[in-house]
Amino acid sequence: MKLLILTGLSGSGKSIALDTLEDSGFYCIDNLPIKLLDDFVSNVMLQDQVTYGKTAIGIDARNQSESLYTFVDKIALIRDQDIECDVIFMQAEESVLLKRYSETRRRHPLTDLHLSLKEAIKIEKDILMAVAKDADLVVDTSRTHYHQLRQLIRDYVQVGDAQKISIQIQSFGFKHGIPLDADFVFDARCLPNPYWSPELRGYTGKDQVVIDFLQSESMVTEFSEDISSLLERWIPRFEQENRSYLTVAIGCTGGQHRSVFLVDSLARHFQGKAFSVIVRHRELQ
Asked: How confident is the model at residue 160 (pLDDT cuts 50, 70, 90)?
């Protein structure tokens, strides 16, 4: 049996993720009080495993804070009942959340406490901090649009059904900010940059002319091999800690050439291993 707990900051895309899970065959419940989680698992999921064999539950900061403090213990008890239980935590930068609420004119759930929107976001982060630390997957949606988020959730569900651990390898541009959801971050800005060759500037790391350029540079090969060796050594350690998801981010200046090439190279290297690989190029729209 599979139970996904979807939680995180309001405005980070939890509703989109929950809708995607429903489209993927999950029975979805939004904003279930944590106090009812034990009863739901014992009296509903385990009693009707056909209907609720794959269930996703949305939990947010409207739960009382004392209930959130027992969240980790409740997840451990659920797993003791032979239920595969993963926690997905979604977040976004404060400026992005403020903009989204301004554009949609939606009300933040904590503004009922007579708080400003900025104050509500800060309090929500503090309330959910303990939950975020123990999440199996942290998704930062600050620069993720609707279709990218849906695809990311679908990929997570698919590889989760088939593999013990899945590795997301993503490229990004440092000038657009470091991904907040990365477990490893590698800086490729020390490598030769195709951008400074006028004939290569308009291409990306997916185009053959850029691939040929980077493959001809020994520094690029050494950089890629070093990352591969490090990951091959440490991924089993993460598996021993029952991690189901690991995010590796490789950045260059703009996220168009070097990082894209390296991510695709690493993905090819790790294909066919004892885990699944998800590729994401954050700056390639």
From this structure: low
Instruction: List, in order, residues 6 or more apart from 242 with CB less than 8 Å away.
Output: none
Report the greatest alpha carbon distance in the chain. Answer: 65
CA distances (Å), 166 to each of 56, 102, 158, 281, in order?
19, 36, 10, 17
Q: Which domain holds residue 35?
A: 2-162
Task: Determine the distance from the C-alpha atom of residue 184 to the mean position of all C-alpha atoms in its chain, rounded to a whole number.
Answer: 13
Are 283 and 173 in contact, with CB atoms under 8 Å apart? yes
Structure tokens at 145: 């649009």
Q: Are residues 59 and 130 in the same domain?
A: yes
The rounded distance, in Å, linking the Cα atoms of 200 and 210 is 6
What's the pLDDT tens digit per position in 214-261?
999 999 999 999 999 999 999 888 877 767 788 999 999 999 999 999
Same structural domain for residues 127 and 259? no
Query: Quick one: which H or E segment has residue 166?
Result: strand 166-173
**What CA–CA distance (Å, rounded) separates 40 from 46?**
9
Which amino acid, 230?
Answer: L
At residue 220's C-alpha, the angle toward residues 216 and 226, to 5°, is: 140
Strand partners of residue 81: none
Last residue of a domain, one of 162, 184, 210: 162
Q: Are 3 and 82 contacting, i.e. CB atoms less than 8 angstroms apart?
A: no
- 132 in Cβ contact with 59 (< 8 Å): no
Tens-place pLDDT, residues 80-133: 888 989 999 999 999 999 999 888 888 888 876 677 888 889 988 888 887 888
